[in-house]
Amino acid sequence: MMHRFDFLRGEVFVELSGTSPERFFNICRSRKIPLYAISTQVTEKGTCYVAKMRLKDYLRIRPTAKKAHCIPYVRKRLGVPFFVKKYRKRIVFFAGGLYCFWFMWLLSCFVWDISVTGGFVHTEEKLLSYLRDNNITCGMRCEDVNCTDIERQLRIDYPDIGWVSAELRGTKLYLRIAETDMPIMKEENTAPVHLVATADGMVETLVCRRGTPLVKEGDVVKKGDILVSGVVSVIGDNEVEVNRYAVTAEADITLKTVKNYVHSFPRKAEEQNFTGKTKKGYKISYGNRKIFSHMPSHSYANYAIITEDAVLSVHEHFPLPLRMQKTTVSEYVPVVRELTEEEAKVQAQQALDRYLSYLTENRTTILSAETETVVEKDTVKTTGKLLLLSEAWEQIPVQEDEWRQKNADEYSGNNDEPSGGA
Fold first, then answer.
1. Distance, C-alpha 148 to centroid of its chain
2. Which of 150, 187, 195 is nearest to 168 (CA)?
3. Residue 230, number of CB atoms within 10 A of its CB
4. Which part of the chain has CATH 3.30.70.260?
5. Cα dist. 263→260, 359, 373, 376 in Å?
6. 174 vs 9: CA distance, rounded Å
């Protein structure tokens, strides 16, 4: 059998022609010159033998072939020596290829891109800045990235992030987060306070944990009314108040309130009519270093800028530190156009939807919304009433004179001591 490294040393297929090829085989065997894959082939000259042998053995069979009156004609050459000889004038090309593979291996040892997904409150820019403050940046070695530490530290520093995953694939760090609706824990207030209504409405639910509730479910309250008092009275056996003290009132309270909604905007809107004139600029950067930059000059009075950013990558998980940026400056002419009645109502509804979404994000339930949009000549105005269910209360401090009782003996001068007699 041929050795597995014979390809590196070189192999040849020889065609034997002559009067006695069998004698050639016998002599090769006696002189320990191995032949492989011996076969017979029919050619125009007749039947001949084809055999495979090592390059080093072929170089020493000349005396054997002369003795057997055979001519070993080389039909095919295989192996590294023939490849190198054929392309020896292109050694610089192959050296460059080897250097390219080495350079790609070197680049694969570093992190060149960080992807952040899943954030809404915590934006990508905010989390990237947080990672930079913790020395997690593009250009650091992959072996220095500890995904477990990144996940643990993020959960500690951002309690409202319920789930986080950090994964390093190739030269790209993937950071995925999932935010929760849980409110951030506030610092506990230990000062005595009342819970006061911040709007007119009706008490929907009230669960008091500390303090004295002054209203009950179904009561109508006004803005500024105390819902839960921070003053607690101590009642004696005869239903007489014997003492009072101040506490930090705590309760779960929801109020059903009515809010007047008013929103207006001009009916004439400005639109951008692009003229088709553009200027393009390019920027190439390697890591944080700028290699080439060309920003075109222009004299457009009104223009829009569109920037396209691309990262050169070998694979989805193998981005390279080479970035290309294309900036397009397009000229436009501002055109003032009057909205149709249908378009005006659509924009008014979109504004209302954004406001209701804002209320929902701030823990407010919209029970009903009755609005009307009037399209006038110059303005579009939407008015109506919103029935809301929310925690419409705030804390105000308890004044000392609300709970501290004065001792009458301090003013009468009587120290309750028995009077003396002669």
1. 17
2. 150
3. 26
4. 6-85
5. 10, 15, 9, 13
6. 47
Give the pLDDT band of residue 412 (cuts 50, 70, 90): very low
Element (H, E) at 163: strand 161-169
The superfamily CATH assigns to domain 113-179 is membrane protein fhac (3.10.20.310)
Lowest mean pLDDT segment, chosen from 142-146, 271-275, 404-408? 404-408
Residues of the chain with CATH 3.10.20.310: 113-179
Phi, psi (degrees; rounded to nearest 5) at 166: -115, 125
> In Å, how far are 162, 260, 314, 355, 410 from 383, measured between CA atoms?
39, 7, 57, 13, 61
pLDDT of 188 over the 60 cut: no
For residues 132 and 126, what is the distance between their CA atoms, to the nearest angstrom? 10
Neighbours of 181 (CB within 10 A): 8
Question: Would you call 409 helix, strand, or coil by DSSP?
Answer: helix
Across the beta sheet with 36-43, what order do the strands follow? 36-43, 46-54, 11-18, 70-78
Task: Please tell me the distance from the alpha carbon of residue 325 to that of residue 320, in angstroms, as a whole number.
Answer: 14
**Least reliable range by pLDDT among 5-14, 72-81, 180-189, 271-280:** 180-189
**Is the CB of residue 249 less than 8 Å from the CB of residue 193?**
yes
Q: How many CB atoms lie within 10 A of CB 225?
A: 16
Q: Which two tokens stand for residue 95?
A: 């050296």
* pLDDT greater than 50 at residue 411: no
DSSP code of residue 90: G
CA distance 261 to 388: 12
pLDDT digits (tens, 9 = 90+) for 99-109: 988 988 898 89
Mean pLDDT (whole number) for 281-302: 84
| pLDDT at residue 182 tops 70 | no
CATH number 3.40.1260.20 is the correct assignment for the domain at 6-85: no
Task: Give which of 169, 119, 175, 123 is closest to 149, Cα–Cα.
Answer: 175
Whole-number percent of the chain with pLDDT over 70: 90
Is residue 390 classed as helix, strand or coil in its secondary structure?
Answer: strand
pTM: 0.54
